[in-house]
Specification:
alpha+beta, 13 helices, globular
Amino acid sequence: MYNSAELKKVQAVIAGKYALSASQAQKLLALFNEGKVPRHTGHFLPLLESDPDLFQKVSVDERAKKYAHFGFFPATYNLVYGCESYPEITIAGRNRGTVVIFESNQSKIVVKPVQSDREWQIAMEAGQLGVGPKQFETLENFITEEFIDGKLLNRFLDGELTKDKLHLLGRRVGEILSKLHSADIYYNDIILADDFSHSHTIVPSNDHAMFLDFGVAMKLTAYPYLSDGEIIDYARTLPMVGAFIYSALGNTESRKQVIDEYRQELLSISKDQVFSRDLEFINTGLYFISQQVRGAWDAFTVGFKETYKQN
């Protein structure tokens, strides 16, 4: 176990709050790459400069070896260090980096890196609205949230998605979008299903569907005055634009050109027009579902229109 002062130091290092000089960073990276420190200590390396004794404690800690830095988060620490048994851990991830799932008798928690500096606040609000996972206290640059037991919408088999179920799902998705839009949240990446077998819509056993992953969502309270990062996120989900955006981001001049172009576009359209893009995402997902399930489009759309209320 770690005392409160030690835990705060470790968490500050994980959150990137310990600044290293260029020479310090180079030296520590060399030690890691040459195998002179344990592999699990990668995120703890700054402690070698600020508190060598604490670094040594972490380097020989069997639980730190198993869970690395993920065991020191506010919501996971007691799961890892507060009882004799070890929680189960699953490591996953795709585009957003390493995603870790902790499972114990007490709870099931997900820890993952943020995709934007606004993601946690928007995800927190979505959790409070009951349309996304509940958010827990976390560390900077990371999301810590409840694990939602359920099935992604694209994983349902033909026989499971009856017209009645699709009607109910349509009503629920309409309710979710009504709540988000009323709170000035533009989701910006709704995936019911796509041609890559992805989905951001999960359906628990009680059919109370939720949206996952608010990484590119935007809060439009101050619309049309958005940050550069928000404008990039708006543009990169536009059809036929995403690949160009990613190639342009590495070049300062190209990035500025993208931001200037889409800032002007946003000045020319209303907030409701931006929200309407979420509806276009819905229709795209319905297209893929309807290829598998006869009558899916009509059943879902009827339910959606019953609950979706425009601002």
